[in-house]
Amino acid sequence: MPYPLPERNKKISTLIKWFVERKKGKVVAARKEIQRRFDYLDWEDQKKIILAFLNSGKGDRTWVYPHLVKCWDDEFMPIVKELFEKHHEQSSTWAIIRYFPTDYLLQHIEWFSEGRDYFFLCRRLAYDKVSIKRNSPHENT
Predict the structure, then answer these.
(1) DSSP labels for 38-96?
(2) CB 105 within 8 A of CB 79
(3) How far apart (Å, rounded) are the C-alpha atoms in residues 123 and 106?
(4) Backbone angles phi, psi at 7, to 5 degrees
(5) C-alpha closest to that of 49 among 24, 73, 84
(6) Banded model confidence at residue 13, pLDDT cuts 50, 70, 90
(7) Helix, strand, coil: what percent of the chain each, to 5?
(8) Residue 127: helix, strand or coil by DSSP?
(9) pLDDT tens, 44-74?
(10) pLDDT over 70 at 120, yes or no
(11) Residue 132 reports pLDDT greater than 80
(12) Cβ neighbours of 123 (radius 10 Å)
């Protein structure tokens, strides 16, 4: 046979298992294939991948944070909150600004006051009339 046969796709459940269990020699290949196929997977598989990458190292978290913006579920909130308070990773801020409660944003406003985060924070707060009214110095006027 003059040409090698192309390798067939592995089941995504197998790749997730290799990634989570840290099978020696399988993690790098699993990570690369998961990242390549992520946008085309079912929601349940995407959710498993997001949780696995959030519980992994910094590089994996950096890759998954932008995907949180378009694939958010409130189930991610406690994990993202814990990671943000522990590491203060810049790449996590857009999902936090978009989906976390306004009170949390106002408590940690100093972390969102730089660069493009400030624009998105202002935009979020501008549409949240309840929080603006509650925190306004002219509330009684």
Answers:
(1) GGGS-HHHHHHHHHHHHTS-HHHHHHHHHHHHHS--GGGHHHHHHHHHHH--GGGHHHH
(2) no
(3) 13
(4) -75, 135
(5) 73
(6) very high
(7) 75, 0, 25
(8) helix
(9) 999 999 999 999 999 999 999 999 999 999 9
(10) yes
(11) no
(12) 12
